[in-house]
């Protein structure tokens, strides 16, 4: 050792000799640094957190969920996107909300007590000018000049991006259906209604109908299949015979008879669809419960005195969820197709409702207007593709072979 080297408690030090860092407490030279515990979402159990991570790894399903959420979220505010009423009106210093409230024309200086037609040039002139009497004679000139009544504040209107509702009969220059132009981005149908507005409202209607029907049919089907599979014996035998008879009932004739007696409506169609759609999940859930009821964990739960319903829905149902979720894409697409088919045949919602099936019927009846067919096709294709991709990701996330990899 040279005279330039000295000793410290960790070894020799000196020029060119770096002193090693102190050893971590309780460890050797190769001990890794402590890893902070991974933060978990407090609202997710470890199993559900793992399922969510697996779902996010599926890029197609994850981005389909984001895109579908954006589209459906926007459609929930369809009244603010496509409407023949302005969102907000300012008249003589007061603010009005025509989307939410009824305002007669007399509220803006008009003559009629009926609801104001805000697209009418006279009503627009009355609002912007503060109620000038000359609006009944030369409204266009007053609007162009920006004249305002004495002592009144100038008014204004804020319109939605599409100033037409799904049932607005538009005044078009030619014959209906008209081709897409600057006023109607997707053209109009055979009654001069804006196609873009009907697609937005129809998309919302189809998804809401599908969600309600899918939730109701799933709850009833899972309950019936769980009871059949868990108890078996005569319970299973009697239920199966009832389901076989019920499935063989011609549902279309029942729908026609009910609509002829009660009239067509959204909730009646939901009730009839649920009435004939709940057996779709019964067979899958029944098979899973028949297979699982003799497993050791079920016998152990029975021996411990756990209640029947707790065993069925707390312990057995989660293990049957993979097969159940696998069927959901078929139920959802089938529900959307059922609504579109009934509307196409004329046995669904009223013709004034913003139905995508009715748009498809118009495309068939007006082959000279290809924009109707293309709009209906791409709307269905995008909607069904997104839903199928999402539920494929959910199915894989619930699959225990992939969850515990």
Give a written overview of the molecule:
The strands form two sheets. This protein has a three-stranded antiparallel beta sheet with strand order 4-3-5, with helices on one face. The model is unreliable at 1-20 (pLDDT under 50). A hairpin with a 2-residue loop joins β1 (6-8) and β2 (11-13). The longest helix is centred in the middle third of the chain and has 37 residues, at 195-231. The radius of gyration is 33 Å and the shape is elongated. The chain has helices spanning 46-57, 59-76, 78-81, 121-129, 139-145, 195-231, 233-247, 251-262, 266-277, 282-292, 296-303, 308-316, 321-345, 356-365, 370-398, 400-403; strands spanning 6-8, 11-13, 88-91, 94-96, 156-158. The chain is mainly alpha-helical.
pLDDT < 50 stretches: 1-20
The number of helical segments is 16
Any idea what the shape is? Answer: elongated
- Can you summarize the main beta sheet? 3 strands, antiparallel
Report the β-strand fraction as a percent range.
under 5%
- Whole-angstrom Rg: 33 Å
Structural class: mainly alpha
| Whole-number mean pLDDT | 83
The level of helicity is 40-55%
Number of E-state strands: 5
N/C terminus separation: 56 Å
How is the largest sheet built, in terms of strand order? 4-3-5
SSE ordering:
EEHHHEEHHEHHHHHHHHHHH
């Amino acid at each position: 050792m040279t005279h330039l080297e000295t000793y410290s408690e960790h070894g020799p030090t000196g020029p060119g000799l770096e002193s090693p860092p102190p050893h971590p407490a309780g460890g050797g030279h190769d001990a890794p640094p402590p890893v902070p515990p991974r933060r978990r979402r407090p609202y997710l159990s470890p199993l559900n957190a793992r399922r969510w991570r697996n779902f996010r790894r599926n890029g197609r399903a994850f981005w389909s969920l984001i895109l579908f959420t954006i589209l459906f979220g926007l459609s929930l505010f369809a009244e603010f996107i496509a409407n023949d009423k302005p969102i907000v009106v300012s008249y003589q210093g007061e603010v009005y909300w025509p989307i939410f409230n009824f305002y007669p024309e007399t509220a803006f200086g008009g003559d009629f007590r009926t609801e104001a037609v805000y697209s009418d040039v006279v009503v627009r002139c009355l609002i912007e000018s503060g109620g000038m009497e000359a609006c009944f004679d030369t409204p266009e000139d007053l609007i162009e000049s920006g004249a305002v009544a004495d002592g009144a504040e100038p008014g204004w209107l804020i319109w939605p991006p599409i100033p037409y509702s799904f049932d607005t009969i538009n005044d078009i220059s030619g014959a209906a259906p008209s081709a897409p132009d600057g006023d109607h981005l997707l053209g109009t149908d055979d009654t001069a209604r804006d196609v873009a507005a009907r697609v937005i409202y129809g998309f919302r209607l189809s998804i809401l109908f599908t969600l309600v029907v899918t939730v109701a049919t799933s709850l009833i089907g899972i309950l019936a299949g769980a009871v059949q599979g868990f108890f078996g014996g005569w319970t299973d035998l009697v239920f199966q015979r009832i389901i076989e008879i019920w499935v063989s009932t011609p549902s279309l004739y029942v729908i026609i008879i009910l609509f002829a007696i009660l009239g067509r409506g959204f909730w009646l169609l939901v009730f009839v669809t649920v009435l004939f759609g709940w057996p779709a999940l019964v067979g899958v859930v029944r098979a899973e419960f028949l297979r699982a009821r003799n497993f050791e964990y079920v016998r152990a739960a029975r021996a411990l005195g756990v209640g029947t319903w707790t065993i069925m829905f707390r312990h057995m149902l989660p293990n049957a969820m993979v097969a159940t979720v696998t069927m959901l894409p078929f139920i959802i697409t089938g529900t959307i197709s059922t609504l579109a088919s009934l509307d196409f045949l004329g046995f669904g919602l009223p013709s004034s409702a913003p139905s995508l099936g009715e748009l498809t019927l118009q495309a068939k009846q007006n082959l000279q207007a290809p924009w109707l067919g293309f709009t209906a096709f791409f709307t269905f294709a995008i909607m069904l593709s997104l839903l199928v991709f999402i539920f494929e990701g959910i199915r894989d996330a619930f699959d225990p072979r992939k969850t515990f990899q």
